[in-house]
Amino acid sequence: MSRSTGGSSLKGKAIAYPTQPDLPELRPNDIVIAVMGITGTGKTTLISYFSEREMKIGHGLEACTATVEISRCNLPDGSKIFLVDTPGFDDTYKSDTEILREVAHWLTAAYTHDIKLTGIIYLHRIQDPRVTGTGLKNLIMFQKLCGEEGLGSVVLATTRWSAISLETAEDHESQLKAEFWKAMIDHGSRVFRQDRGRESALEIIQYLIRKKRPVTLDIQSDMVDKGLELNETAAGKEVVSEAEKQNKANEERIALIRKELQEALTRKDEESREELEELKAETEKEMRTYREELQKMKVGREELRRQMEEKYKKEKEQLLQQMQANEKLLEEEEHRRRTMEEKHKQDLELQKAKLQNKYYQLLLSDKCWVM
């Protein structure tokens, strides 16, 4: 069923995204598979096996994927598909709010244009037998985004099998299936091993294509069909809950700092007072940041689209300015190089002229001596 914005039908129209000028256009019948997981699980590597363009692959713990990136891919049988690289909720520089806004914007835009995901590949490092910290947060957010109905189109794929022994890896796999992934498997998710590079990646993709089970995620139906704001979705509530916990912890911290400040003033301890004032200012700044993050979550689909497009426009303008500034620096450097080369050339010619003049003077001197 086609969804409308402002009363106009969008069915059958291609969708282009403003994040990158070279993004491919998607149409309703295209095979589109999202790849998700925390940083370092091999998302970009998997996509690079089939992508028409070169992918930037990270080798550390800093995220390479800062926004949703779509890659047009070619399979061995000649078929064309699209793989969507998504940032994880453990980004080096972006908050969970920013990541969720990015992902929600792309998912709702696709759904509005009748583009459904063929499936989702969720990657997990096999050397991590337990899902804790950012890994657990990422898994929870993933489940909230999908909803129970969407889990039937999910592949849970373990990566980096060569990093540990086969026996240990199989033990870890069993633990993941029995504990952390059990509920998802019960709702139809399938476990694969991404352990043979391009070959196993192709098997995963072909499984999702054969399954022919296009998925509508909870966040898509919530924001598009039900008209909910981002903070009212299951994923949004999770982000809001974490932000509120941090705010509460900071409020308690501020109360303690104020008490210690009063004691420092009573003792006339100037050094402690200055340190506490600095700590208080940092905590208050963090609280303001969290309040701003909460405010950003109070946004519907259309307003989110408007804000994100405005954001991309500013980023594009800033990038253009940086490119122009770099071009100017290159031109200036080239001018300096040419000027130096010309001066060096002139110096060499002057030195040559001086040597020639000295040589001729010596010749004349020799002639005078003979006479």
TrEMBL record:
Gene3D superfamilies for this protein: P-loop containing nucleotide triphosphate hydrolases
Domain G: 33-94
InterPro entries registered for this protein in UniProt: GTP-bd (IPR006073), P-loop_NTPase (IPR027417)
Entry-linked Pfam families: MMR_HSR1 (PF01926)
Lineage: superkingdom: Eukaryota
UniProt keyword list: Coiled coil
Coiled-coil residue windows: 240-358
GO molecular function, a single term: GTP binding
Keyword set includes Coiled coil: yes
This protein's record includes keyword Cytoplasm: no
Protein name, entry field: G domain-containing protein
Organism for this UniProt entry: Mytilinidion resinicola
Species classification: Eukaryota, Fungi, Dikarya, Ascomycota, Pezizomycotina
